[in-house]
Amino acid sequence: MKRGEFSFRRLLPDTQRVAPEILRGDAATLWAAGRRGRGATVLVIDTGAPMWRRPLARKPSVHPDLEGALRVADCRSFVPHEPENFDFNGHGTAVCGIIAARDNRFGIVGYAPECEIVCFKAADRTGHGESAWLRAALDAAAELRPDAVSISLGMPNGTHILVKPLRRLRELGVAVFAGAGNNGPDAKMSALARMDGVVSVGALGKDGEIAPFSSGGRAADELFPGEGIYTTWLRGGYAEVTGTSFATPAAAAMEALMRGGRDETMEEKA
Questions:
Q1: 214 flagged as catalytic
Q2: CATH number where 11 lies
Q3: Residue ranges making up the domain that contains 66
Q4: Which of 150, 190, 215, 245 does the annotation list as catalytic?
């Protein structure tokens, strides 16, 4: 894995998987209490929504593991040269699966499988984003008023224009999570992750220790698994991904679990 980048490898779906990092973590405790994210909304600001258009189809297809989770009508693109909010990169689709993949007997189960997600596109198919696009997405987030915002985009400069929208979200009680970056423990966390009102998220490796690529090491506000994470990918596929980009949605999903209502049926089963 190159410094500053995330990694992935494509996988074929089989029977449904519930990630061990979910089963042995705090999410399992909240699940047992009937909390699976019902009524909560997570906004994903990334490379677009987990959708694509099939030939001759009248409407876009949504990743099967995210049907019922994605509020398609609320998804938007802030990338001028990619007005459709489809994810052509894969990064945003992977993030969505970690948060909200449904408990539907196939694929995977996300941390908050009963929450809803909305996708704002602020990076193009190459993964490139501009601070102005993110600013526009954050301004729109204040109108949407989600419970949590997951941002796994690197912003090396230009973050001064994000101060006001981040302050507004904080005033509204919206929790904003951003990835620390993948440049190693001796490097500073990403500029966005260091901003006031943002919860910085670092990555844990498979051994439960801080991942060697996670920027800032223990300086991150929160730490979640970010190595070898099995999740959704483009056009209904699945992949294994690594990076603080994929620890961040876990943190946002945990916020959704805590803010969402109880599912009494699940509580009785537990």
A1: no
A2: 3.40.50.200
A3: 7-269
A4: 245
Specify if 2 maps to a domain: no
Q: Per the residue annotation, which of 74, 77, 87, 91 is the catalytic one?
A: 91
Position 189 pLDDT exceeds 90: yes
Q: Does residue 198 sit within a domain?
A: yes
Instruction: Report if residue 1 sits inside a domain.
Output: no
200 catalytic, yes or no?
no
Q: In this predicted model, which residue has the larger pLDDT, 139 or 157?
A: 139
245 is catalytic: yes
Between CA 226 and CA 205 the distance in angstroms is 6
pLDDT for 166-175, tens place per residue?
999 999 999 9
List the catalytic residue out of 46, 65, 74, 87: 46
**Number of domains the chain is built from:** 1
pTM of the model as a whole: 0.93
Q: Decide if 58 is inside a domain.
A: yes
239-264: pLDDT as tens digits: 999 999 999 999 999 999 999 987 65
